[in-house]
């Protein structure tokens, strides 16, 4: 999975949230630590929209700001 954002700080914050959620699953015992690392390894953060060129599916999750949506698309 590729996650694209316009700011590195946003990517860092998003990945930290994902890790925190997976950490909770490990603490509860519903996920093994090695599974956590395997899942995180599947995520590629980037600032480059060109990384989406070969994507089979793209989910847009931009704030409801028309100017921002037009800039992206």
What does this structure look like?
The chain is mainly alpha-helical. It has a single domain (2-72), classed as NAD(P)-binding Rossmann-like Domain (Rossmann fold, 3-Layer(aba) Sandwich), CATH 3.40.50.720. The protein has three helices and two strands, in the order βααβα. The protein has helices spanning 8-28, 33-41, 66-72; strands spanning 2-4, 44-46. The relative contact order is 0.19.
Give the number of domains.
1
Averaged pLDDT: 91
Q: How much is the radius of gyration in Å?
A: 15 Å
Percent helix: 40-55%
At the first level of CATH, the class is Alpha Beta
Global morphology: elongated
- What gap, in angstroms, lies between the N and C termini? 19 Å
Structural class: mainly alpha
For CATH, the homologous superfamily is named as NAD(P)-binding Rossmann-like Domain
For the record, the CATH architecture stands as 3-Layer(aba) Sandwich
What is the CATH topology descriptor? Rossmann fold
Unreliable spans are none
- Main β-sheet, spatial strand arrangement: 1-2
Strand content: 5-15%
Q: Please give the largest β-sheet.
A: 2 strands, parallel
Structural descriptors:
8% strand, Rossmann fold, 3 helices, elongated, 2 strands, 73 residues
């Amino acid at each position: 999975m590729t996650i694209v954002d316009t700011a590195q700080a946003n990517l860092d914050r998003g990945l930290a949230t994902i890790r925190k959620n997976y950490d909770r699953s490990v603490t509860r015992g519903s996920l093994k630590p090695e599974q956590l690392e395997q899942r995180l390894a599947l995520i590629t953060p980037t600032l480059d929209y060109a990384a989406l060129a070969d994507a089979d599916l793209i989910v847009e999750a931009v704030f409801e700001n028309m100017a921002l949506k037009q800039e992206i698309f």
